[in-house]
Design a protein that fits this description.
There is one protein chain. Strand 7 and strand 8 (about 80-85) form a beta hairpin. The protein has no helices and eleven strands. Helix content is about 0%, strand content about 45%. The protein is mainly β and about 130 residues long. Strands 2, 4, 5, 6, 9, 10 and 11 form a seven-stranded mixed sheet that branches. The termini are far apart.
Length: about 130
């Protein structure tokens, strides 16, 4: 069982920055690939960014490339999402998720179905 708890969401003006954190339980955090997803009202949940178990590889959605950075600290069982140049269209509930089979994959998964555990989400609202 893996528990994920997100924090760091809030209200920010367009052009501003936020850093989201996701704290994970369990002693094998360093073996999971981790991802961030988001869901805006009336829309499907979508991939934002993901990082390999070692932190050596990352993937980003085209919509956030160059603005968002995913990172992890395996000693703290935490994954981060640093968000800069935020836009109103970034407004959503942001979820972190764990892919327990990440070490066995040749590439970082971006599909929701590959992620086994999910946090409860944190709201990010960007005002124009």
């Amino acid at each position: 069982q893996v528990q994920l708890v997100e924090s760091g969401g809030g209200l920010v003006q367009a052009g501003g920055s936020l850093r989201l954190s996701c704290a994970a339980s369990g002693r094998t955090f360093s073996s999971y690939n981790m991802g961030w997803f988001r869901q805006a009202p009336g829309k499907e949940r979508e991939f934002v960014a993901a990082i390999s178990w070692s932190g050596g590889s990352t993937r980003y959605a085209d919509s956030v490339k160059g603005r968002f950075t995913i990172s992890r600290d395996n000693a703290k069982n935490t994954v981060y999402l640093q968000m800069h140049s935020l836009k109103p269209e970034d407004t959503a509930v942001y979820y972190c998720a764990a892919d327990l089979l990440g070490q066995k994959r040749s590439t970082i998964a971006t599909g929701l179905v590959f992620y086994d555990y999910w946090g409860q989400g944190t709201q990010v609202t960007v005002s124009s």
